[in-house]
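Appendix B, Record 12. Input sequence as logged:
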Amino acid sequence: MIAKLPFGKTGHASTRALFGGAAITEGLTQQKADRLLDLLLEQGVNHIDTAPLYGNGNSEARIGTWMKSLRDRFFLVTKNRERTYREAWLSIRTSLNRLQVDYLDMIQLHNLTDPKEWELALGPEGALSACVKAREKGLVRFIGVTGHGLLAPVMLRKSLERFPFDAVLLPWNYLLSRDTTYAAGFFRLTALCAERQVAVQTIKSIACRPWEGRTRTATTWYEPLTSSEDVQRAVSWVLGHEGIFLNTASDASILPLILEAAGQPGFRPSDGEMEAMAAARDMLPIFSGGAMIL
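Logged structural output:
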């Protein structure tokens, strides 16, 4: 069974592996989505993270239909990619309708790493104001912020200095830890989060390399690790960092491997083991600079 930890100061004990709703893609039938989501019940996963962008709304819609009688078993999270108050408010209402729920456990400002977008979203007429209004009306319980790309640690720390977000989400894997600038920013951010009881969610745990020049064989935008041994090492390395959560990857076929790995007894592979895997699989960084918009 996958271990649980307090999800920041929300009062919820979430499984350390959080289901990433990006695995439910556009065109996936409800029947196939149901079979995928049933894995969460089998593995005891109690936290779902989706977004309107995933499957062009399909992820929210499929999750909503599946979890009608299961709402109280999950900490339900979606995101908001809009930057203005009006657009964000409409997006929140649309997400509630697709998910067929009266409230969300958390709404997250999606990929807030571009400085101009950051100023707009956190300004007086920005998306954050819509999230706060939703919280005041009981439509949302908590508010988080996410970031992609190499600017994520810095911009998320800056976000926490502007507003008391309840959670952050950003990339973390072994190759990123070898980027000294990124790693330093990551650990400064996680130290601040620990001090303030802000939940830390990580993504891209099983990233292997960019797809450039290679045939795509998965729905992830990067080429993922696919063998059970490699996935076990990558997942165990991330979860070997105390107090952080791991979001599952956006490929349905790899989900069982990640959940199985997350449920194994806790251990953290050595840097030597990770280096050997990186060399054997010709692993390469998936971010080359700046923020990646997803």
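Residues 180-196 form the longest helix (17 residues).
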